[in-house]
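Mods, move this if it's the wrong board.
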Amino acid sequence: MDKKDLKSFKDLLVKKKADLAKGIENIANTTLKTSQRDAAGDLSAYTLHMADVATDNYDREFSLSLADNEQKLLNRIEAALEKIESNAYGLCDVCGKKISKVRLKVVPYAELCVPCQEKQEKRGK
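Not the wrong board. Structure tokens:
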């Protein structure tokens, strides 16, 4: 892959990384830094109804799950940026063949070429 393409993919990855970091920070600020009572908008000193507590817990767990998924994606982006620095970007982790530029434009943090990805997905079912 030539330097122009590498720079283009690096810029794309850096932008995605910044967007994900903002998303994770937003989830952390809205989910982890607010109490259940504040999140429910309850201003009274009375305890919350069990159903309200359950709903709030579900919402909190859902948000944390989203943050976890975004963190995993952020880790893949970091790995792709490291591969750019070590001149290994765009190579399949399994077979070592080049990953198509079309695939990398859609999934710039792709670790596998399409055939290897398909094989992995078939094994996972």
